[in-house]
Amino acid sequence: SNAKDGKSTLDEDDSGDIVQQKTQEETLFHEETIDLGGDEFESEGNETVSEDSNNFVDKLNEQMMESVIISDSPNNSEDDTGELGCLQEMVEQMEAKSNEKTQAEVDKEEFLSNESETEHEETPKDVSEIGTDDQASLKEESIQEVVKEEPKLGNNVPVQTRSNIDESKPENQISSPSTSKPSPEPEPIPVCTIFSQANNVNTQPQLFPPDGFQPQMVKSPSFSSIIETPVKSNPQVVQPSPSLSKFFGDTVSTNTLASDFFDSFTTSNFISLSNPNASSSVPEQMSSLSNGGDSSCASSNPTFSVGSGRPEAGGPPSSPGITLSPKPFSQIQAVFAGSDDPFATALNMSELDRRNDAWLPSEETRNVLISVATQQYSTMFIDKENLTMPGLKFDNIQGDAVKDLMLRFLGEQATVKRQVLNASSVEQSFVGLKQLISSKNWRAAVDLCGRLLTAHGQGYKKSGLPTNHTTDSLQLWFVRLALLVKLNLFQNAEMEFEPFGNLDQPDLYYEYYPHVYPGRKGSMVPFSMRILHAELPQYLGNPQESLDRLHSMKIICAKVLENLEQGLAEDGSMTNITQENRQASVQLWRSRLGRVMYSMANCLLMMKDYVLAVDAYHTVIKYYPQQEPQLLSGIGRIFLQIGDIKTAEKYFQDVEKVTHKLDGLQSQIMVLMNRAFLHLGQNNFAEAHRFFTEILRIDSSNAVANNNAAVCLLYLGKLKDSLRQLEGMVQQDPKHYLHESVLFNLTTMYELESSRSMQKKQALLEAVAIKEGDSFNTQCLKLG
Amino acid sequence: VMRLTKPTLFTNIPVTCEERDLPGNLFNQLMKDDPSTVKGAETLMLGEMLTLPQNFGNIFLGETFSSYISVHNDSSQVVKDILVKADLQTSSQRLNLSASSAAVAELKPDCCIDDVIHHEVKEIGTHILVCAVSYTTQTGEKMYFRKFFKFQVLKPLDVKTKFYNAETDEVFLEAQIQNITTSPMFMEKVSLEPSMMYNVAELNTAGESESTFGSRTYLQPMDTRQYLYCLKPKQEFAEKAGVIKGVTVIGKLDIVWKTNLGERGRLQTSQLQRMAPGYGDVRLSLETIPDTVNLEEPFDITCKITNCSERTMDLVLEMCNTNSIHWCGVSGRQLGKLHPSSSLHLALTLLSSVQGLQSVSGLRLTDTFLKRTYEYDDIAQVCVVSSEVKQS
């Protein structure tokens, strides 16, 4: 509540001037209308802004344009009854407050005695303060005063009607004479001012909720000793210098250590340690992620994992501005039996791999890849800028906001009960990772990804260091970044995405590692990671960049489809593909194109460019015809949001024509839901409630209908009923209904209901603690 | 107390992956399990879950201020005779918004009295919602407390107008309406309610019913739209058109808009006034004139001369030739007496000696009573072409 205090002080300061002016007048004219002070400036300011933003041509026009005063009631009655007493009172009280420290005691008394002359039935004991921050919720600005209507001297006892009296500010209790006769010795007045908890709702999504997680570059202690040496000896690690070999030497040791660690958990029974060469004859298996075929390739061959760092492999000292190519791979080449054989190579490339990994590199990247392919045995030098050198940008973001809140509000005793998985409590492998994700412990999962990547040599502070990529390392990055986005940690995600550039560097293609992935073509970057990469800027306030990225993805997807239609392979090469496989491939790429369009539509919606967004959603329908009813409903809701009820209605009618695409129950629900929304748009909450309730009759577990019906109840003035409905829902199936939006509504209503909302919120926290993982967004509990 | 703006729809952040990716279908499954997503179309960002307003937000002139007032008994005692009063104090008046003024007999612990108030805001500036509660405790003590909630009412629209006066007594009104709020605004209705003297025709559709604004039915923040109206004086007033002088009331604009989930707002402008073009004492207007004429060939025009003054005039017409315009006929002829508000029609013949767009100028009317001369230049333009061109 410190913030609140600060704010109210400001408010006082703000109104101070007005108050001073007014008080002087006040003492003279009691019935005068109080000018509520400098507020008009705000609207006028608006006007100025609007004019400023006009361009010059408009300005010229404006000379001829006449500004029109808008007023709904042109003749506002000026007949002011004595009702203004209240305002006077308030002003006086503000005055009284500013004089709190009793410097102007005399003034005040004069004042208050005046007051009691005007106000006959009430004793002037009200202390009030007016919150001026119109952004904040009304209920947070309230200052309550309790006044006893007993003008008798000496009979005044402070009244405590609220339990959270401890929050009251004692200094706000002004002493004032309680009779109209100014007495030299002011009596303590029976006033208690209760401030409700300052709960400034932050409308902007906070990137870093105040849960103790700061995106600071924290270095993992466990890893620091390894990195320190190279960093110290070589502050600019990538600057080639005579000590480069030393640096590489260091990296070797690092990587060796890392790969040891990597081994230690890859040897789990889950990940097969089989020789990749052996498994290469079964390409399906190799490509399948779950069996970790590719990572085993890395771990089973230490030479490979330290590849680029080996000084002896590089031969001559590297020249400035370049780094070593994956030349050392040639040394393991010997173990790849039959990789010289073009037929074997062709076999290695599985149908699925080709289909999924296909991507069209840029001209520049393509050239590099071709030269890698053609100069297999000679040392290749590639510009450092063309390499992808990712590394963790922060370490240990792990934490548990729920637990922190429990410590704060429920005490240590209760906190012990909170048991969630963390990165160390699961198997250090993909299995453990999946376990963390599905138990909604995404923060821990991010950490585990970090550990696994560290083992891969792409750990903290490894950004900018040469490294090799495997299918798995990129998948790990994808999972980590996707989870960061899911946790709304967009800035962190952006930082770690940065080294990947536009995901088109040559070392992200299989062709770059002809000996590790003989014959395999395409990009290692998962398609979903590209989507994630493209979508990210829009969450950071740069939707235009998102659109650009999505557009270039769209072009490539369309080109791939075109290639397929022309009888070529995805990448445009002349490969024989069976009809069946071609069909499957077309299907995959169509759905990918649809996914890109989906993201575009979402992005446009975020930009509030509704016309284009609606167009884009129409396009999505072409790619996902089975989602037509949902998408048309969505478009209808967009129009509802704009306020265009008629068009919304038209779309909802269209939905009813296509609901045969859904099963009976689902279509019934959708029609009812849309009707309910339409009634909402027409301000008819009672009807909307009826339809939401109707849905509950056929599907009692429908969370949306449940929640929305409760919201309608509130608008109908039935707070208690609404609360009962939401509470019942949460108790009935906490696993599903402890959702952010539901809890947010619930806490909002608790706040409205009573100033004792804290207890109920804490009860919710306990419920959350039992069911939810560390990824729970605690902001919706509004406990802050 | 909580302001009841319309609820908003929850949006989620879709993160998807493909079957072959490391998490398998985990991400997709997580999204399916999320109650806020649209089932069957989880990637759709705009969900169906309603969330309550998170802050007071902005309130604009013409919108309806709705608020939930809940009086909750936090104590463990029953209180009696509870009277809840909600007033809205504006800079000029104080309104009572409570639905009922009857006292509630008793309020048990942990129970509440609920009221939802609505008020269409009609003033800009500071408003204060004053909620006063009085009650009696078990011991018979009369208690009273008040709460104040202050908010600002802002201006939602910027309206600018411009008038064009046509020769035919029609008036064209151009109105620019700018959305100066921070959210998109759907313009449900923008109409001109004419004053009694005029009939209005809206010129905002192209063809049958297609709006000139196309499919974009809403105004983004800071966007401006231009509406055009044509006003024709009604027959009974048109007769006296010459008499309409000085400031005339044209009518007012009625604007209805909707924002989030049908939150409605309505405003009217004050009466739009225009300065009728000053015609002086004598008005000369053209009734007929050809648009294209042949070089050096005479053509006819018809003028209407109206006496706009309060007195009778005796007029003499003089015609002065310019470089290009040559009047045919006698200059200085008597037009006779013209009474106030009456008019006469006059056929004149002239020819042009120069090709191109020529201005008809050079008419002079002299009122012999007051010896006052009125000059009429640039009455109209004609296009003068050589006769060969016109024939071919």
TrEMBL record, chain A:
<feature type="region of interest" description="Disordered">
    <location>
        <begin position="92"/>
        <end position="191"/>
    </location>
</feature>
<dbReference type="Pfam" id="PF13174">
    <property type="entry name" value="TPR_6"/>
</dbReference>
<keyword id="KW-0813">Transport</keyword>
<feature type="region of interest" description="Disordered">
    <location>
        <begin position="275"/>
        <end position="324"/>
    </location>
</feature>
<feature type="compositionally biased region" description="Basic and acidic residues">
    <location>
        <begin position="136"/>
        <end position="152"/>
    </location>
</feature>
<comment type="subunit">
    <text>Component of the multisubunit TRAPP (transport protein particle) complex, which includes at least TRAPPC2, TRAPPC2L, TRAPPC3, TRAPPC3L, TRAPPC4, TRAPPC5, TRAPPC8, TRAPPC9, TRAPPC10, TRAPPC11 and TRAPPC12. Interacts with CENPE.</text>
</comment>
<protein>
    <recommendedName>
        <fullName>Trafficking protein particle complex subunit 12</fullName>
    </recommendedName>
</protein>
<feature type="compositionally biased region" description="Polar residues">
    <location>
        <begin position="275"/>
        <end position="306"/>
    </location>
</feature>
<keyword id="KW-0539">Nucleus</keyword>
<dbReference type="GO" id="GO:0016192">
    <property type="term" value="P:vesicle-mediated transport"/>
</dbReference>
<feature type="compositionally biased region" description="Basic and acidic residues">
    <location>
        <begin position="23"/>
        <end position="32"/>
    </location>
</feature>
<dbReference type="GO" id="GO:0005794">
    <property type="term" value="C:Golgi apparatus"/>
</dbReference>
<keyword id="KW-0597">Phosphoprotein</keyword>
<keyword id="KW-0931">ER-Golgi transport</keyword>
<feature type="region of interest" description="Disordered">
    <location>
        <begin position="1"/>
        <end position="32"/>
    </location>
</feature>
<feature type="compositionally biased region" description="Basic and acidic residues">
    <location>
        <begin position="94"/>
        <end position="111"/>
    </location>
</feature>
<keyword id="KW-0677">Repeat</keyword>
<comment type="function">
    <text>Component of the TRAPP complex, which is involved in endoplasmic reticulum to Golgi apparatus trafficking at a very early stage. Also plays a role in chromosome congression, kinetochore assembly and stability and controls the recruitment of CENPE to the kinetochores.</text>
</comment>
<dbReference type="InterPro" id="IPR011990">
    <property type="entry name" value="TPR-like_helical_dom_sf"/>
</dbReference>
<dbReference type="GO" id="GO:0030008">
    <property type="term" value="C:TRAPP complex"/>
</dbReference>
<keyword id="KW-0802">TPR repeat</keyword>
<dbReference type="GO" id="GO:0005634">
    <property type="term" value="C:nucleus"/>
</dbReference>
TrEMBL record, chain B:
<dbReference type="InterPro" id="IPR055428">
    <property type="entry name" value="TRAPPC13_C"/>
</dbReference>
<feature type="domain" description="Trafficking protein particle complex subunit 13 N-terminal">
    <location>
        <begin position="1"/>
        <end position="153"/>
    </location>
</feature>
<dbReference type="Pfam" id="PF06159">
    <property type="entry name" value="TRAPPC13_N"/>
</dbReference>
<dbReference type="GO" id="GO:1990072">
    <property type="term" value="C:TRAPPIII protein complex"/>
</dbReference>
<comment type="subunit">
    <text>Part of the multisubunit TRAPP (transport protein particle) complex.</text>
</comment>
<dbReference type="InterPro" id="IPR010378">
    <property type="entry name" value="TRAPPC13"/>
</dbReference>
<comment type="similarity">
    <text>Belongs to the TRAPPC13 family.</text>
</comment>
<feature type="domain" description="Trafficking protein particle complex subunit 13 middle">
    <location>
        <begin position="157"/>
        <end position="277"/>
    </location>
</feature>
<dbReference type="InterPro" id="IPR055429">
    <property type="entry name" value="TRAPPC13_M"/>
</dbReference>
<dbReference type="Pfam" id="PF23643">
    <property type="entry name" value="TRAPPC13_C"/>
</dbReference>
<protein>
    <recommendedName>
        <fullName>Trafficking protein particle complex subunit 13</fullName>
    </recommendedName>
</protein>
<dbReference type="Pfam" id="PF23647">
    <property type="entry name" value="TRAPPC13_M"/>
</dbReference>
<dbReference type="InterPro" id="IPR055427">
    <property type="entry name" value="TRAPPC13_N"/>
</dbReference>
<feature type="domain" description="Trafficking protein particle complex subunit 13 C-terminal">
    <location>
        <begin position="290"/>
        <end position="384"/>
    </location>
</feature>
